[in-house]
Amino acid sequence: MDATGRPRLYPEHKPFDDSVEGYFALCTDAQTRPTLSGLSYHLGFDDRETFSNYAGYGPDFSRTVKRAKLRIGDWLEQRLTDRATFTPGIIFDLKNNHGWKDVQAQEHSGPDGQPIRTDTRLDVGSLTDDQLRALASIPVQRG
Q1: Mean pLDDT, the chain, integer
Q2: Structure pTM?
Q3: Cα–Cα dist 10/61, whole Å
């Protein structure tokens, strides 16, 4: 029994592993796609998190959970390259159930990847006398 609640549905690893394998066999036989929700339901759980929590019950349980998630993720990844598949839905599943993330990298640089250069010099050679006097009359704040 867990320290904080009711007894686990699968206190031993072998029945848990057998049920997980049974789910994948059913999917193959029925030609249906494996999902975390379907697997969790098949195992008798009320939610997907319960399946994931079994990874904390020891190395054998952890291996079964990780491999099941990999199998589902593999199925999804293979569908990403299939033009007939609804790709946005698969991407949604991968992001929400398998830890995928959108990553955007932005790099700011000057020509040829060099640092950005800014020129703060003022070319006063082309200014008129009136423009120079107006520029000279601007008070300078020293701080």
Answers
A1: 87
A2: 0.60
A3: 10
